[in-house]
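For the sake of transparency, this paper describes our internal protein records without simplification. The tokens are whole numbers drawn from a learned vocabulary of local backbone shapes. One such record is reproduced below, unchanged from the form in which we store it.

. . .
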Amino acid sequence: MIYLVGWQYNGHDDQYPAWFEVNPLLKRPEDATAEESLRWLMREAKKYHTTVSLHLNMTDAYEDSPLWKTYVKEDLISKNEDGSLMVIGKYNGRKAYQVNYKNEWEKGYAQHRIQVLLKMLPLQEAGTVHIDAWFARASKGHEESMVTEAEYQKKICNYWMAHGVDVTSEFIIDYMSGLIPYAWWFNQGSQRYLDIPAKLYCGGKINPDLKGDQALGFLFGTSMHGEGVWTDFNTFSSRKDWQGLFAERFYLNSVPYFFLNQFERKSLEGKGQNRMARYSQGVEVHLADSTVRQYQQLLRKGDDVLFPAIWMQEKALVAYSKEGYQQRVWTLPIGWDHVAEVELYQVSAKGNVFLKKTKVKKQALTLTLEKGQVILVLAKE
């Protein structure tokens, strides 16, 4: 999934709460408008098993927005106790004001904004949208608590869902459990991992800036962000050799995360580096030796992995090694005990390349991987 940041007007955070015009820089020469080009991109991406959607903001309002006068006149901006409009930040040299969720909803403007987008772009085909920096704040000038604003925030979220669009958020929003399924930054304590199953609320990465326990990402799974792969944030330039870094982060993070999210989290045992997460169906994750096992069969050891490719219809495994290895014997996981032969494919950004067929003896497969190599293992039953 790719969420486009800065797709509207002149780019990131520009002219909210309006979002009625596509950034002209997205226009292709062969299209009449940038809007037409964005619709093309969203539909073309599906050919490559990719969903393109939007990065939005439903909180901020700027004075240069086409909707500014309307939002002030209709009392759709939250207020301080003295009646002044609530400023919540300053971005790109402009003050950002808090949209009042209650008034915006009750007067129909929130619904109108969403309906405009649904008509402009195939968001219902994408099935998802990202609402960034989505915070509920008390509006003392309206004598409204944060709880009241949060209740209207839920109504807005339900409205998106009723139209076939799931919402992702920047951070975990506790009271949105069961509504928002995914947070881009997933900082939380270990007990919350045990209390809230992944099928209800899961997330991307643990934000190191928030001083979170990074080890929880290994114990309970963590996905990845693509923006730091395609762009080098040290130089703010595009990486031409992004494939290797993408593979490393995907196969060492997202693939174990997909696997672990299938199971019920049972317990977290031990302390510090000696912690172990125990799951249903015999799955254990050990921090001390960086292993993942199911019924004692090894699926991961450090930066070497052999996990089920659960997103594929075929019975398949993916093998990856950050540093490579020679003639390593893997015991194939549960459900592979009757597999006698497999096909091996080299995975690359240009597609899968058949390598060879190989026999499986006593549920054991011997592999040799080069540094950073990805191998797809398909069962031939």
The mean pLDDT is 96. Residues 3 and 53 are 5 Å apart (CA to CA). Residues 242-260 form the longest helix (19 residues). The first strand starts at residue 2 and ends at 4.
